[in-house]
Write a structure and sequence with these properties.
This protein folds into two domains: 144 residues, Ribonuclease iii, N-terminal Endonuclease Domain, Chain A, CATH 1.10.1520; 71 residues, 2-Layer Sandwich (Double Stranded RNA Binding Domain). It contains eleven helices and three strands. A three-stranded antiparallel sheet has the order 1-2-3, covered by helices on one side.
């Protein structure tokens, strides 16, 4: 497996605690107790905060709805996957035998999650400012693409744009079931509007299940509100 120094060079950040970096790159298929899921949880929150702050300070003309929509477009799984490919994080991942044989090293969901875990590890190893520097470096092209009207608009984002134009609506995604062992779990999600289940989806990650539910819900939304 590739030397972690190569990854640190690409990131422009050297870990003080190499164990944190190793944990961030360890998938749950290899170890149930020693894996990157907790760091992924933390990194997701740090990423949201950094992108929120960046948009808030750099786009003073954006109202709350546009800030939310823009942030959602920047932190999609597709966007994270794009970052993962650019820094070749797949060559550094540590996977269980079954996941390795099943092509897990190149699965968008696993690669996207590893970017969030890496962000969480940098935050824990240093502080918010260091994490912010790395995030803005990694996502620079993605941010510019979204702000210029380009890519990364996924089903959840498109659905959010639709319901933003529908008065008095509250939407949410609820995981109502989980099935299978930690390294091969399936999540079942309901998309809910004003307390009513409007669509359901399932996937190997919560994000994947939410995207599938959103895709189904979009089929019932008026086309005039949906940007293809």
């Amino acid at each position: 497996m590739s030397d972690f120094n190569k990854l640190e060079e690409v990131l422009g950040y050297n870990f003080l605690d190499k164990k944190l970096l190793s944990t961030a790159l360890t998938h749950s298929s290899l170890s149930r107790d020693y894996n990157n899921e907790r760091l992924e949880f933390l990194g997701d929150a740090v990423l949201d905060l950094v992108i929120s702050e960046h948009l808030f300070t750099s786009k003073g003309d954006f109202h709350e709805g546009k800030l939310t929509k823009t942030r959602a477009a920047i932190v999609t799984e597709k966007s994270l996957f794009d970052v993962a490919k650019r820094i070749s994080i797949s060559s550094f991942l540590k996977l269980g035998k079954g996941e390795e044989q099943g092509g897990g090293r190149f699965k968008p969901s696993i690669l996207a999650d590893s970017i969030e875990a890496l962000i969480g590890a940098i935050y824990m190893d240093s502080n918010y400012e260091h994490a912010k520097q790395v995030i803005l470096k990694l996502f620079k092209g993605n941010i510019e693409s979204v702000l210029s009207g380009g890519g990364f608009k996924d089903y959840k984002t498109r659905l959010q744009e639709y319901f933003h134009k529908v008065p008095n609506t509250k939407i949410s995604y609820i995981v109502y079931r989980q099935k299978g062992p930690p390294h091969n779990r399936t999540f079942y999600v309901n998309f809910i509007v004003n307390g009513k289940v409007c669509a359901s989806g399932s996937g190997k990650t919560k994000k994947e299940a939410e995207q599938i539910a959103a895709k189904k819900a979009l089929k019932t939304a008026p086309k005039k509100y949906i940007q293809e």
